[in-house]
Amino acid sequence: xxxxxxxxxxxxxxxxxxxxxxxxxxxxxxxxxxxxxxxxxxxxxxxxxxxxxxxxxxxxxxxxxx
Length: 66
Fold this sequence. Notes:
The structure is a single chain. The protein is an alpha+beta fold. It has helices at residues 11-18, 22-30, 47-56; strands spanning 8-9, 37-39, 42-46. The longest helix is centred in the C-terminal third of the chain and has 10 residues, at 47-56.
């Protein structure tokens, strides 16, 4: 059986998903360095957008060009 994820995650949920702290995620939001949506006063994240954001920030393997 596959795990079903909610479409919108909280700051805490995304921090857990990325293995970082909620404080770090809030800093990324403040700098507008991570995709997010506002639901009223709440900050939420689409997991699919976060996955795309991660893929776009991947650092190529240094040994790949050797």
